[in-house]
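Could you help me review a protein record that somebody else here produced? This is what I was given.
***
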Amino acid sequence: MDILAPSFFMITLNRLREYLLTRPWGVLMNPISLARIFELVDIEKATKANTIQRAKIGSEVKLLDKQTSTISRITLTEPENSNPNLGKISYLSLLGSELLGVVPGEKISVGILGRAVNFQVLGIKDTQLDSRR
């Protein structure tokens, strides 16, 4: 493999981007960001009768990646249940923490390695409601 080939760098960059976006435990996250995440989780737990569909732990979020124009579905989970290969993303990951509390149509941006990675929320489905039926 020619490491000077542009495709090698793009593949490596894409793998690093995916890793930093989806891994749990707040990679590179500061204490203020963690406090904001925990506050959002507490607010969502305290609000039972919410008429607006907001992303929360257990929600399946349909996302448009603005850089690659790809659509994906991910489920926000507790850190111990995360498995990015299966589309289960911890709410403590960089991407997961930005998704907490968003509504369909909202745009989010995640900073990775000094660059913004932009997404648009296309839809939210409460998977906890589906499992109760």
Q: What stands out?
A: The radius of gyration is 16 Å. The longest strand covers residues 115-126. Helices lie at 6-22, 31-46, 94-99, 127-132.
